[in-house]
Branched-chain amino acid transport system ATP-binding protein
Amino acid sequence: MGQAIGDVLLKVDNISLSFGGVKALTNISLDVRAHEILSIIGPNGAGKSSMLNVINGVYHPQQGSITYKGKTRALMRPHEAARQGIARTFQNIALFKGMSVLDNIMTGRNLKMRSSFLSQALYWGSAQREEIAHRLKVEEIIDFLEIQPIRKTPVGRLPYGLQKRVELGRALAAEPEMLLLDEPMAGMNVEEKQDMCRFILDVNDEFGTTIVLIEHDMGVVMDISHRVVVLDYGKKIGDGPPDKVRNDPAVIAAYLGTTH
Ligand SMILES: Nc1ncnc2c1ncn2[C@@H]1O[C@H](COP(=O)(O)OP(=O)(O)OP(=O)(O)O)[C@@H](O)[C@H]1O
């Protein structure tokens, strides 16, 4: 696999999160290293999505802290996470269905666009140059994801697997340092899963992007991850390379007790 694993990029320290009486996460600590592909697995309701939501500032834990690139914080808002280079896709596709593939991916450039309406009016030339640069970046992503033939198609008309690929494209448009993927393969057929795996590996390899993903397909997880963290009932019960986690009795027991 591509770029060498680097230093710790994200440090999660003793995070606890509850909703009323429900403890979604209890004392979770984990590290994510630069250029790593880390999978978070666990039975339904284990706290996987909550963990991603804490990392990108959607949920605010009652306890613990997050250190990203050396900066520790107890509280962060999603737009701050995005500004710091964390992009995310969702379990349910969150695209503008009536808009074209190209325009949807362009929305991922929002944070990178500096010129306001006023500066566009005053400095038309520079705003236009900026727009061209953004379009070039988006075209690069479209080439990378091999979706040139559908660039003008409204997203709502595409099969599910391609919509997921467009969603990945929009996240990539932000040129993130860290990418959070919430079940990127859910609902896909075998061929679509293979394609998505290849793109995830290529993103990691070619752009060096650090990837944290939640996935239920164990074959996929064991294939593409450098490391796997296992949650069960909001607690961390495993953390290590795929081979180690696969043979861990506590992990096996957690999975045998569920439908996964
Ligand atoms: N916004 C919320 N309000 C109340 N409870 C919540 C909320 N989000 C998550 N929970 C609860 O926290 C626990 C962990 O949920 P979470 O969605 O993080 O699990 P998960 O591992 O992602 O599950 P799945 O695999 O089913 O997506 C569950 O008991 C869930 O009901």
Residues 96-175 form one domain. Residues 100 and 153 are 5 Å apart (CA to CA). The chain has a mean pLDDT of 89.
